[in-house]
Design goal:
By secondary structure, the chain is mainly beta. The chain is built from one helix and 23 strands.
Amino acid sequence: MKKTLLLAEALIVLAGAGCGYPDDGTSNELPETWGVESDALTTQNCVPLTALSVLASGNDGNLPENTKDDLLGTRWSNLGKGSWIDYDLGSVNTLTGAAIAWHQGDLRASNFALSVSSDGLSYTPVYSGRSSGTTTAAETYAFTPVSARRLRITVNGNTLNDWASIAEARVCGSSSTGTGTGTGTGVVWRGDFETGNIGQWSGKQMVSADRLQVVSSPTRQGSYALKVTVKQGDNPISASGNRNELVKMTNEKEGDEYFYRWNTMFASDFPSAATWQLFTQWHQSGDSGSPPVEFYVNGETIYLRVQGSTVVWTTRLVRAQWQDFIFHVKWSSKSSVGFVELYHNGQLVLPKRYVATMYSGQTNYLKVGLYRNSTIAPTGVVYHDGWIQGRSLQDVQ
């Protein structure tokens, strides 16, 4: 089953250095058909917490949401000392620091301060300093652990001008180890659509907005879910098959271990076809070949397959009922190291099985929606809800 992903060309523009001019005069709007970015965010000494929303004191067209998209090529920018950007976690957490990747961070050092709040009204200073000015990678700034809901970054210019410009930022939380199975505790990311939109996700591949809709009914949990519709001919990236999918740059790499939980429901008229219909996949960073991990339907059966050839679990396709998945994975290109474990509808249906879960020298990222053989004529509808990624079973339960 050959699958390809169209790679978007990167636009590189020299930055203007004069105060009062646009930070580099470019737009960061992602096209509908975008691909894998090689410069995705990584953090050191930081357990990143998921911000449900972000706002800022202003922007020059480079929006604050760009600092959550896992792409170092996009940014938030605003001119003026005292410019701030504010991250809301949705509930009180134990905060331990912030990881910030500064736009043009290898050319200038930014002066900044961090403050926290539980109500969005009263803020307490927790850190002040200056970035190194030597790297565009994320730098982690630690402070004494504190309970709060919001983190604000206030930028007071840089060594060249008065611009505030951040490529990516993450709120860091407690890194203490709990009792759950996994590499540590902490929710890494939520994609549960409770923002009322798809802003928790990195991007989309769709032919039109009606193909990926956030809806209030049906839902498995919370107030919103995603309705995915695919019609014959839907091909937003000019590749094989028909699709409409969301993308999250989860950037799993060799040795990572995570738990994922989500809910999927197939519509009552979901097509029965003797060919593949993917609804969840972890795609490799390369642009061709079957994904290393894929959940798909063929006929009246749901399959979990790895490495494009090894089926490790099957179950009967059930329509018009929510299917609950908890997927535990050790990501590795070595079959002696990597493994998969699966809970379906609350039951352990696949005990830990050692198998290669990625391709050598590549990373993985998540795609959710519906991607199917182009020969299927009837319209297909599937719903997704409740996506969460964590480091232990307790995190996602």
